[in-house]
Here is the input.
Amino acid sequence: MKNLLLEILVFTLVLSAFLGISGVVLDSWNETTVRILLTTIIVFVSSVLGLCCSTIYEKQKLKPLSVIGMSICFISCLYFILMIWNYITIVNINVNIIVPLITLSISSAHICLLLNINSSNQLVTTLRFYTIALSIIMDLLIIIMLYLDAEIYEQIWAVLAILIVLGTLIVPVINIITKSKFDEKKRSKYQELDDLKKLLDTSAITSEEYEKEKNSILND
Here is the structure.
């Protein structure tokens, strides 16, 4: 799945570059060329979002969420391509469809990337949970605003946006910090066990003392 999305990503990127260069050099811009370029851009963006969703595809418990996210990206891509080629006319274009598709595609990619962070640290998992929860709340508010014509204060949008961005930035940073500390502690334990084994080999300590110290290090 990831390889397919990467191949699509590279192909659309190269095609977009080729169309852009040929349009500038040959001065051959026309309606068809623009539509092809817009189509490749839409496919490229959708592939990036789909690739983000695919990061948790291999995790059995999270696989359904990954599939849902990629499906939303595919539907969004298809809808915008139909718009570009006038299969959906301007008259029939519905903001209540476009905005949720964009919102859910980006949100799915965002949530899947956060869920791809592997950590048993309580702080990391807690911050990740609240960041995902806030992201879902914002999605729901957008849908409520569109379909129920509800007025939501700008302050609420601002606070939610700031907290989501903050959580998205600090979760991976804290994960890296805590992981580094854990790895350092783990290496320290291995070093202590290695030193202890050397003392046993040189008969500097007895087997009973070795086992006692070993259990003390492992249980620390």
